[in-house]
Amino acid sequence: MHPDLETIVLTEAQIAERIRELGEQISADYGHEPVLLIAVLRGAALFVADLARAIESPVEIDFMAVSSYGSSTKSSGVVRIIKDLDETIEGRHVLVVEDILDTGLTLKYLLKNLASRGPASLEVVTLLSKEGKQRVPISCRYIGFDVPDEFVVGYGLDYAERYRNLPYIGILKPEIYSD
Ligand code: 5GP
C-alpha cells in the first residue's frame, strides 16, 4: 500500500470484477445499439478505459472536462466546461461515465447541458457513489460501489493531481492534507 494512505477501500481485484459486471449489464441493456461513452475528465479516464473494454456493444468514446470552483476537497456546484465534446450527440445513445458522485451538483449541470442537445437516450454510470450524500437527486442507472462519505483517491481520483495512478482506491492519512 502507498505510504500516504491510511486504508484501502477497494482493491484492484474488486474494481476489476465490478467493472466486468457493469460491462455485462451495459452490453445486455444496449445490445447491438452503439453507445457513446462520455467520460468526464480527468477522474473518469482510467474507469472509461477499463469499462469500454468490458462492453460488447459497439462503443464510441468522447471526453468532456469540467471544473468545479471551490477548495480541492469540496464541491461548490459552480461548474464550467473546460473542454466540450468533439462531436454532436443528437440522436445517439449517450452514457455519461463519472468517477464519483458526491453532491451530484456536477452531474446535474452536465446532464441538463447534454439533455438540451437531443440525445436518443441519456444515462449515467458512476464507479463510486457516496452514501447518503447526494444533495440533488440524480438518476444514475449504473453504480459500481457505494462508498463511505470520505475523500478517496486512486484509480483516477486525485488529491492535488496526485494518486490517480494507484490501481486501488483508498483514504489518505489526515496529515497529507494541506488545506
Ligand atoms: P459532486 O459535484 O458530485 O459533488 O462532485 C463530483 C466531483 O468531485 C467528482 O467528479 C470528483 O472530481 C470530485 N470528488 C468528489 N468526491 C471526491 C473524492 O472523494 N475524491 C476525489 N478525489 N474527488 C472527489
Task: Give an overview in words.
The chain is of the alpha/beta class and 179 residues long. It has a single domain (13-147), classed as 3-Layer(aba) Sandwich (Rossmann fold). It has three helices and nine strands; from the N terminus they run βαβαβββαββββ. Strands 4-3-2-5-6-7 form a six-stranded mixed β-sheet, sandwiched between helices. Strands 1-9-8 form a three-stranded antiparallel β-sheet, with helices on one face. Helix 2 links the parallel strand 2 and strand 3. The model has no long low-confidence stretch (mean pLDDT 93). It binds guanosine-5'-monophosphate. Guanosine-5'-monophosphate binds next to strand 5, helix 3 and strand 8.
Number of domains: 1
Main beta-sheet strand count, sense and barrel state = 6 strands, mixed
How large is the share of residues in beta strands?
A: 25-35%
- In terms of structural class, how would the helical and strand content be classed? alpha/beta
The appropriate CATH architecture is 3-Layer(aba) Sandwich
Across the major sheet, the strand order is: 4-3-2-5-6-7
Label the overall shape: globular
Instruction: Please mark out the parts with pLDDT under 50 across 5 or more consecutive residues, or reply none.
Output: none
Task: Give me the Rg, rounded.
Answer: 16 Å
Order of helices and strands: EHEHEEEHEEEE
Number of helices: 3
**CATH fold description:** Rossmann fold
The overall average pLDDT, rounded, is 93
